C-alpha cells in the first residue's frame, strides 16, 4: 500500500488491520485493530488527524480528510460504505454511513445511526443515537428499530471477518483465461440485503 510520511508524521496501521494495497495513507492517519480499509480509499492526514477505531471499516473509494487541527473519527464498529466522503466529522460507535454519502465538518453521527446512501450531512449537524438520516441536506427520518441495528451490526461483523480473510489469503495473481469446471465461490455469508430480509 502507498504510505507516506509527511513532515515527520507517519501513518499507523495495527497489525490486525487489513489495508488494501491500492489504498493511500498520508501523514496523520491511525488505523486501529481489526479495521478494514478497501481498494482505492484515500486517507489524507495532511491537515487534520484521521482515526479508524477498532473494528471499523472504510470501503472502496472512500475519502477521509479534515481541516487543520481537527480529528476525523470513525468510532468502534463504524461502517463506511463504498464511495462515502468524511470531512472533519465524527461517526460514533456502531453507526453506518451509506454508499456515496457525504458527512461534513463538525457533524456527529450518533451511535447506532444510519446515514442513507447519497445523503449529504451538512457541517455541524448532530443526530441523536439510533437515527435514520436521509436526503440532501440530510434530516432525521425516524428512530431505527432493534432489528435494523442488529442487521447493521451483522454487516459490520462480516467486514471484520473479511479483514481476517484478507490477511490470511489475499494475493496478487494473474487472471485465468477461462472459467474452470466446478469453479469455487468465495466464502458465503448469512447476511442478506435489507430489502430481502
From TrEMBL:
Pfam families: Hexapep (PF00132)
InterPro entries per record: Hexapep (IPR001451), PaaY (IPR011974), Transf_Hexapept/Carb_Anhydrase (IPR050484), Trimer_LpxA-like_sf (IPR011004)
Lineage: Bacteria, Pseudomonadati, Pseudomonadota, Gammaproteobacteria, Oceanospirillales
CDD domains on file: LbH_paaY_like (cd04745)
Species for this entry: Marinobacterium lacunae
Coiled coil: none
Signal sequence interval, chain numbering: none
Protein name according to UniProt: Phenylacetic acid degradation protein PaaY
Amino acid at each position: 500500500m502507498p504510505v507516506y510520511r509527511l513532515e515527520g508524521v507517519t501513518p499507523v496501521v495495527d497489525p490486525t488491520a487489513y489495508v488494501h494495497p491500492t489504498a493511500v495513507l498520508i501523514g496523520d492517519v491511525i488505523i486501529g485493530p481489526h479495521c478494514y480499509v478497501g481498494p482505492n480509499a484515500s486517507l489524507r492526514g495532511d491537515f487534520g488527524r484521521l482515526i479508524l477505531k477498532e473494528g471499523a471499516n472504510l470501503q472502496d473509494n472512500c475519502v477521509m480528510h479534515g481541516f487543520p487541527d481537527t480529528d476525523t473519527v470513525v468510532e468502534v464498529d463504524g461502517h463506511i460504505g463504498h464511495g462515502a466522503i468524511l470531512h472533519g466529522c465524527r461517526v460514533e460507535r456502531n453507526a453506518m454511513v451509506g454508499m456515496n454519502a457525504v458527512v461534513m465538518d463538525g457533524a456527529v453521527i450518533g451511535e447506532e445511526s444510519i446515514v442513507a446512501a447519497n445523503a449529504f450531512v451538512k457541517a455541524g449537524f448532530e443526530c441523536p443515537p439510533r437515527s435514520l438520516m436521509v436526503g440532501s441536506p440530510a434530516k432525521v427520518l425516524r428512530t431505527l428499530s432493534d432489528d435494523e441495528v442488529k442487521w447493521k451490526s451483522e454487516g459490520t461483523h462480516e467486514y471484520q471477518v473479511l479483514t481476517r480473510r484478507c490477511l490470511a489469503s489475499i494475493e496478487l495473481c494473474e487472471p485465468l483465461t477461462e472459467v474452470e469446471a466446478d469453479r469455487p465461490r468465495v466464502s458465503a455469508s448469512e447476511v442478506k440485503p435489507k430489502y430481502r430480509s
